[in-house]
Input
Amino acid sequence: MHNKNERIIEEYVKRFEQAYTDSSTYTQRLQEMAEIKLADIAQADVERVIRRFLYQWGRMGRVLGRSEFRDWESDVAKLVRAKCEKLEDFRRKDLADSRLNVSEFELDLKKLYDCFKHIVGPVAATKVLHLICPNFFPMWDNDIARAVRSEIQRKEERNNTIEEFSAADYYRFVGQVLNFIKKYETVLSDLAAQYKKGELKILDEFLWWVTHRPLSLFF
Output
């Protein structure tokens, strides 16, 4: 029998799935990305797979259309080729693996996030990393990132304000996600099997629903 929190997770993921029934774009882009050899990725591959993922599924067109992100497709292709060994290594890792010690990868994780953030911004950076390594890198958007950072700051009794989400913020977020997965492994695994998605995607749906809906909807 599931406890109260597990039932809430089930309910919120169910509501997300009912509201957003077409997940084919997400699944298709992940499949296409998995077939690309990162050492040989070209700008055309980025435009065909990553751009479609960010624009069609991630709805990042307005952000990435800004002048500051001009030629991001070419820059992402160059970055992926330059970091292909690290990315291929993360491709083989699963954040839900109980044997994994995330602190061992802190420096690489922060560097990768910062590199992609410089090219596409803090939100799209996590989506690109997730697309390439869907079992290791969780995604966030502005609302999820703010909510998680506020919770971490509350627990650590910090009250500093940062304009942009830093690599340290993302690393803490990955740690929080890992703790969440360990705590609710059974229900997340069951939902992943039910909806034929990875556990990180299921968790993303739960976090998205929690942070994008006013409490009034639940009463």
Q: What stands out?
A: Confidence is low (pLDDT under 50) at residues 215-219.
